[in-house]
């Protein structure tokens, strides 16, 4: 086995990253509950469930480092037997990552209408869940550091399946959004921003899971993989919350009208602001008003989308809708041409 520095150093760094990301998670959770009070109850309960598990996971990780560095300091057991709380990490991670991936699989089915893609994501997610449970059981039965590689199969199943699910999620969202480009610059700019968000939030979890399993296999008899492993659950929850909050996010708090086409609008807040801004624009320029709203309703015609603008202000955003981006422009024609006005005067 490696020296104390290489044994506990990566684990300590992983716990630091975990606690730092927990702070980010607290802020994102606060923003979500303050901003999206009209989301469906089951989605709000999902976020609560994830937050509770993440809190427990952070406590487990801190206790895991407290045991060898304080309770068993300077004893042979500290460098031979893994901390008791280490076995809680795999099961806590998959209890967080699996609901997140299944939630996104549901969204993929709604957005792309592809049950095959959603089924593939669900399959890999469930495989990862089984692998995580098997890893927890294995660490409980064989807690010695020197024997951790006796259950490589469980660890590889867990992390490789999780990374595969994340790659399929990111690829399918990017392809689906890219096909929705219309050639209109304003619309395409919005889609490009959503594509970047999808890549940033999806690939970071895939890269972390892949790095975790690769280092575990390639660099045996060390704990270097724990640098990525202990922060993995926080990356999943923060990625989901950042995507949910991106429907309005900080822009909702500052009065801007930016939306995330992956999860729909917050009509109660955004549409009211848009109607007020439209009234101001009408008084200053009676000929043309651009609302600045990108409609995210199921595929409707332009006339239907325009007539739904007022009714949308009265209804909550529905996450179960598909995605259709329509730039709404209200045109107000002057009833009299300019030359006739002059003649009338």
From TrEMBL:
The chain crosses the membrane at residues 12-33, 45-66, 78-104, 116-143, 155-178, 199-219. Keywords: Membrane, Transmembrane, Transmembrane helix. Residues 298-345 are annotated as: Disordered. Pfam families: DUF6534. Residues 301-312 have a biased composition (Low complexity). Residues 162-248 form the DUF6534 domain. InterPro entries: DUF6534 (IPR045339). It comes from the Eukaryota. This is DUF6534 domain-containing protein.
């Amino acid at each position: 086995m490696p020296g104390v520095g290489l044994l506990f150093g990566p684990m300590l760094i992983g716990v630091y990253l975990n606690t730092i990301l927990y702070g980010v998670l607290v802020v994102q959770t606060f923003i979500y509950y303050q901003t999206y009070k009209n989301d469906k109850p089951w989605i709000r309960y999902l976020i609560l469930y994830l937050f509770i598990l993440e809190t427990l996971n952070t406590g487990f990780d801190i206790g895991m480092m407290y045991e060898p560095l304080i309770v068993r300091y300077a004893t042979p057991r500290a460098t031979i037997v893994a901390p008791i709380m280490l076995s809680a990490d795999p099961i806590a991670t998959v209890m967080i990552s699996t609901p997140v991936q299944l939630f996104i699989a549901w969204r993929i089915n709604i957005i792309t209408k592809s049950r095959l893609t959603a089924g593939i994501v669900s399959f890999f997610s469930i495989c990862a869940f089984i692998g995580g449970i098997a890893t927890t059981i294995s660490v409980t039965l064989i807690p010695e550091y020197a024997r951790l590689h006796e259950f490589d199969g469980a660890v590889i199943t867990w992390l490789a399946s999780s990374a595969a699910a994340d790659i399929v999620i990111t690829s399918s969202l990017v392809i689906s959004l890219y096909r929705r480009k219309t050639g209109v610059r304003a619309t395409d700019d919005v889609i490009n921003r959503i594509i970047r968000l999808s890549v940033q939030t999806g690939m970071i979890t895939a890269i972390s899971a892949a790095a975790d399993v690769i280092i575990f296999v390639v660099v045996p008899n060390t704990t270097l993989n724990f640098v990525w492993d202990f922060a993995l659950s926080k990356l999943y929850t923060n990625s989901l919350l950042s995507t949910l909050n991106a429907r309005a996010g900080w822009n909702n708090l500052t009065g801007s009208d930016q939306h995330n086409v992956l999860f729909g609008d917050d009509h109660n807040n955004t549409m009211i602001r848009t109607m007020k801004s439209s009234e101001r624009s009408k008084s200053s320029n009676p000929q043309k008003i651009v609302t600045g709203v990108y409609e995210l309703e199921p595929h409707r015609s332009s006339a239907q989308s325009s007539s739904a603008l007022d009714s949308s202000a009265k209804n909550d955003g529905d996450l179960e809708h598909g995605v259709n981006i329509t730039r709404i422009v209200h045109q107000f024609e002057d009833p009299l041409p300019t030359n006739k006005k002059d003649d009338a005067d």
